[in-house]
Prior knowledge:
The chain has helices at residues 2-12, 16-36, 41-61, 70-91, 104-127, 130-140, 145-152, 157-177, 181-185. By secondary structure, the protein is mainly α. The chain has a domain at 1-92: Rna Polymerase Sigma Factor, Chain: A (Orthogonal Bundle), CATH 1.10.1740. The relative contact order is 0.08.
Amino acid sequence: MIEQIHFLTCLVNNDSKGIMEIYTLIFPKVRKFILQNKGQQQDAEDIFQKALIQITVRYKREKFKINSSFEAYLFTTCKNLWRKELKRAKNRVTNSDIIELVATERDMALNIMEQKRWELFTEKLDSISENCKKALTLFFNKTPYKDIVKKMGYNSETAARQRIFKCKAKLSDQIKEDQRYNSLKTL
């Protein structure tokens, strides 16, 4: 908790010593992740910088609470930004006659909204039963149903599918019951 407040305060106050501490502690892990996932050094630097700016802007607007360590929060933010960038690059059509202009403020607002959605999702995932959480984690990680049957001790793939369906419904209901849901539904 103290670490979170310290790092967030360093970002908001543009404290270069504190920001260097963040870079030293967390950037190598982000760089490793991006290099292992089709990225370059420059990509890692850009994503890390975007994540820091996004967190800073959001914290200036609303003093939010981080439910994990600052390191885990920043790393997850970077992972989400990089995955979004990979998806965007995959869908981008190269045409030298067309120059796509991305509104930085809109992009940042969308990233903040996406981060808030992720936080709501993970919070609600943590609040469901351990059995459901484990089954859904396997499902979300694209584990084949036959492996889920073995790991969870279900009788058949049909039983696994039914359990996952019920767990997803329970998770969805909990998310929709949260007062933050409507504001995060659309931008």
